[in-house]
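Sample 1 of the test manifest.
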Amino acid sequence: MAEKEITLMKGNEAIAHAAIRCGCDGYFGYPITPQSEVLETLAEQKPWETTGMVVVQAESEVSSINMVYGGACTGKRVMTSSSSPGVSLMQEGISYLAGAELPALVVNVSRGGPGLGTIQPSQADYFQTVKGGGHGDYRLITLAPASVQEMADFVDLAFELAFRYRNPAMILSDGAIGQMMEKVVLPPFKPRRSEEQIASECPWATIGRKGGRKPNIITSLELRSEEMEIINLRIQAKYREIEKKEVRFEEYMTDDAEYLIVAFGSAARISKKVISIAREQGIKVGLLRPITLWPFPSAKIAELGSRMKGILTLEINAGQMVEDVRLAVECKVPVQYFGRLGGIIPEPEEVVEVLKKMVK
Amino acid sequence: MTHEIIISGFGGQGVLSMGKILAYSGLMEGKEVTWMPAYGPEQRGGTANVTVIVSDEPVSSPILSSYDVAIILNQPSLDKFEPKVKKGGILIYDGNGINVPPQRKDINVYRIDAMDTAAKLNMIKVFNMMILGGLMKVRPVVTIESVLKALRKTLPERHHHLIPMNEEAIRKGMEIIVKEN
């Protein structure tokens, strides 16, 4: 095999190929536009014949997420993918995964809502993802890819983080990144872990008691409040550690910037075009792209914000991340939001107009 | 150099696959490429369009509001995208089914009667490659060698005998495209 294989593919296809290559043990999913190519590509690639990865089309999203729960209990690298309405159905399961401290990957190639909404791209699941769509005090490690390459790269990264912290991880993408084709270098093949490796790396896994160890119990249920508080405090301490160690972001043309755009995923791509047009017109503007939506790069935004005349968040929703940006700068800098709704993607020129009004 | 191209027509005319071949050809030349389809439910019977960006630099927004080149295969697409061609840019349209031709004087308008030609030559299947040939004549985004390489790479082996017909269509397209203004 060539050492660097460059190919052209859709973001959804990249997710599937990356899953096979990063030693994923199982995928459980149910088709929904605009992410169906994930399951389609897996079916086409038949990884059960090569790496031994299991691919199941479940009867529903509720089944998918609970199959993921089952697989995760055994220390396997398991995942599911869906789009907004399907991810809503999974929220109970995601909360249980977080409560039971199970590593797993959920991919959301989101579309416009609320309800069945539209099949066009949207970022309106930001709140659901980072504020907890399910119940209880939990957090999802959330990666927001802005290119097909990142769709491929973040699968392995998400699994690594999920296992490092025993916490579910989410790739929050959207229909644009899922459907567009770009060139991508797929990650090298990594074998699936052996049973022995799983036993040594995941001492918590319920893989059968060989020898004298105490039985492992995986549950999110604890009826004694005192015990439940201790569990919660431990989970919260883990979250603080993640917030300290795992913040990821991209900075673009911020050195001389007087204005800052904060945008993630496809909105960040649009922002780069906005920046090139705006700079031609003399507006010094840069971009901060959160790569992890949780943990959120609050400190970085506060630092950059302190030397900006204004901040604009560009989101393909009604203004969700803007709340976290305002919190980050503690309202010391004016923060505006612009976005389009219902599956409409903002065009670069209309964002430039918003910037011009800010500058005036 | 960056080429920002919109291809728009009816679903079934090969709009998306033409875009894909164009993007793949760019890839063959080591360029940065992005292929962004309008994947809505409007594709069947309605209009289908795809934005293709071929560039020497990393591509920023895959979604654009103005284009260097618009390739137009039906009237609704012409109505929608003629105003969105950049000043001095290129508009290529197939005359088939166009009642109100392009009006703008500040862009370069080319007409290519590929649908009629393809029908006459019994080449309907490669109609979209004729259009692609037209594009390559007036704006050499990629070379014909790259397109043939891309076809060899993307078509399954069993269809490789169709590549000469595709090449013929590209060359025909280069011949029949005419400047209108």
